[in-house]
Amino acid sequence: MRWRSAAGLGAVILLAVVLAALLAPLSGYDLVTDVDPGRAHLGLSLAHPLGTDHLGRDVRWRLVFASRAFAGPGLLAAAVAGLLGTLGGALGGYRGGPLAGSARYLYAVIGSIPRFVLVLLVGSVYGDSPWVLALVVGLSYAPALGEALHSRVASLRRAEFVRAGRAYGLSDARILWVHLVWYASRALIGRHLLAVFGYYVVLESTLAYIGGFGVQEPMPSWGNMLVFEWGRGQWLALLAPAAALWLVVSATRWLADALEDPLDV
Amino acid sequence: MRIQGGSALLRALLARAGVLVAVLLGAVVLVVSLVHLAPGDALDAQGIPEALRPALEARWHLDLPVWQRVAIHLGEVLSGDLGTSLAYRPGTPVAEVILGPARRSAVWLFSALALTLTWGTALALYTAGRASAHRVALRTVSILPVFLLAHLSVNALNEGAFAAMNAGWIDRPDWFALPDQASALRTALAVVLLAVGSGGLTEVHAAMERAVTSARRSPWAEAALARGEPLAPHLWRHLLLALTDLSLHRVAFLIGGLVILEKVLLLHGVGFILWDAALHRDSPVVAGITLLAAAVLAVVRLAGDALRLTLDPRLRSDP
Lengths: 265, 319
What we know:
The complex is a heterodimer of chains A (265) and B (319). With 265 residues, chain A is mostly helical. Chain A has 10 helices and no strands. In chain A, helix 9 runs antiparallel to helix 10. The longest helix of chain A is centred in the last third of the chain and has 39 residues. Chain B has 319 residues and is mostly helical.
């Protein structure tokens, strides 16, 4: 089936990117000293499978090392959004009352500020470390997940299988976390976490592309690789980071689309 | 359940407005607290000489405890005073810095919103219920982040124009070379890219396709067709509800995208100022624009709620 192939490809791409980010330092490639204008703008070759940029730096290795700029922080952002969104949404949806009201109010307040604007505010006041940006992205995505999970859990808390579970003697914690969150909502949570990761990838590249925030030269980011080759006539060095970015963002979407959720129908 | 009339609409609208005001107040508290809880202060951020520090500390209340500074700042914001710019345009009131460019940005924002909704709906009406290669093409392009779309478009336009000029086919266009030359093309490009990029057009198309398909298969549509009545008037009412929901969802994304495009395409709107003020650590300007963006979102949500409540009386009985 076509969607399964796309999902499989998406999973492979995301796994490869995370592995590349983890294993890149073992390659021994030195990002700072590998500069040789004498070999600028080389085309495809075995030594340089994606050519070189205008400073003679290997585009392949810069692409690989650039994944370190977003892989770890992107996973942290997803973890923060997952933790805050799942806790607030699930507990609020199951218990109701003032707890749910408070959580939803907090979500509404955070959600009332456009995400990118909130990132710039926090970046300007607290600094643009990737970990700070990851925290604020996670925080800003928690309302979307929390609201979705709240609605899901609230709509199911009086369902027959939940009443049956209670009659069978299951604890509230087991019903909530195992049956309502894990069995009934894991696809929903997974889709949101993939969206957070995809958003962080785009955010990091955008900040580095425009400049001033995020990763700065000589450290590579797909964003600063793009802008560095602007107007220099080397199409391979220009298109390689663009293609990589498209591939990773598409991979998160393919995988998210494949997380079928019968309760969404 | 009884469907209430005009007074119910007013009550429901007032309730929604009350919630939005409470949320906006929460946003003001959040933004002001974020600014004041940061380590260091505005003087550290601006590198002010030590000799000037005592006078400026007293003037900006930096000698007070954090909670008092937050309270004073909250009072100022709620009375409409957003403070003065520290670094972007030192000494100028923030409202003066941002209001003019904000009007320009609002025009671009709502043009892009109108374009993405119209385009997505037209495509959805065409593709709903049939196999179409448009979906794949749309997803392939629309998923690109707005900065990358802008980068590729500007490169392609510049290279194309340059080649045409070299071949003697055209004279130098007034917009050449993007994005340095101010022109109508640059503004139009920003609106189109904002409408299409970061999955915007795909999302609108997919949601409207679902709405069209479900409406066409619904019992009321079958009943209307069986009676020989035109479907369009009923369909549009149904689609307008879906469009309203989409608009509320898309506006926040479009605001973020506009900040990026203004910077990439050198359009002097409020997003351009936001970026530069953030780089200069001008927290009053950044906080002012953040609050303005939150207020715009709140107004759009209230307008959307009003439209939804008018179109669907069943929503008025919701708690």
